[in-house]
Design goal:
By secondary structure, this protein is α/β, with parallel strands linked by helices. The protein has helices at about 20-35, 45-60, 90-100, 110-125, 145-155, 170-185; strands at about 5-10, 40, 65-70, 85, 105, 135, 165-170. The longest helix is centred in the first third of the chain and has 16 residues, at about 20-35. The two termini are about 20 Å apart.
C-alpha cells in the first residue's frame, strides 16, 4: 500500500468536540503513523487537532505544525512536534500546509475548518492544484454541508465537475482507501 508522504488535516481545535470525533482523530493519527504519512496541520494542542497530532507522535510518526502568531492569545501551539513553523497570518499557514501536503483530509470542525476546506477546494476549481480532497463525514457530521455543496452545484453556482474534485467518506477504512487510491493516481501517466 502506498499513501501520500504528507497529508494536511483540517479539523476542529475545540476541546468541547464530541468524544466520537476526538476518537476519530486519535484513530486516524495512529493510522497515519502506522503508514508513514506525515501529518501537516495547524499546530495546535487542543481538540481534534491535538488528538490527531498526539496519536501520530505517540505511534512513532512525524508531525509538522504551522501555527500563526495571531492565534497565541486564543489557543496554544503544540510544544512537542517534530517540526513547528511559526507564521504571521492564517493565509501563510494555509499556503505552507498546501505546499507541504500531497492530499487534504477534512475532519469535523467549525468555521475555520470550513474556511480551509473551501479555500483549498476553490484553488482546485481554479486549477491551482490537483491534489485529493477528502471529507470525512464522521457520524454524519458534514451531512448538511455536503447537501449544501450539492445544492450549489445543482443550482448552477458551480460546474457539475466540481463534485468530482472532492470525495466524501463515512469511515476510517474508506478514508485510508481514498488516500491510497489518490496516491496511486498521482503516479499514473
Amino acid at each position: 500500500m502506498a499513501y501520500p508522504k504528507a497529508v494536511a488535516v483540517f479539523c476542529g481545535a475545540s476541546n468541547d468536540a464530541p468524544r466520537i470525533h476526538l476518537d476519530l482523530g486519535r484513530d486516524f493519527g495512529k493510522k497515519m503513523a502506522e503508514n508513514n504519512i506525515r501529518l501537516v496541520y495547524g499546530g495546535g494542542d487542543c481538540g481534534i487537532m491535538g488528538a490527531v497530532a498526539n496519536a501520530v507522535m505517540s505511534n512513532g510518526g512525524k508531525v509538522t505544525g504551522v501555527f500563526p502568531e495571531s492565534l497565541k492569545n486564543i489557543e496554544n501551539e503544540h510544544q512537542s512536534l517534530t517540526e513547528i513553523i511559526m507564521v504571521e497570518t492564517m493565509h501563510q499557514r494555509k499556503e505552507i500546509m498546501y505546499q507541504r501536503s500531497g492530499a487534504f483530509v477534512i475532519l469535523p470542525g467549525g468555521f475555520g475548518t470550513m474556511d480551509e476546506m473551501f479555500e483549498i477546494l476553490t484553488w482546485k476549481q481554479l486549477l491551482l492544484h490537483d491534489k485529493p480532497i477528502i471529507i470525512m463525514n464522521n457520524a454524519g457530521y458534514w451531512n448538511n454541508l455536503v447537501a449544501l455543496m450539492n445544492e450549489i452545484i445543482a443550482k448552477g453556482f458551480a460546474k457539475k465537475e466540481v463534485a468530482t474534485y472532492y470525495q466524501v467518506v463515512d469511515d476510517l477504512e474508506s478514508l485510508m482507501e481514498a488516500l491510497e487510491v489518490a496516491e496511486h493516481r498521482s503516479h499514473e501517466g
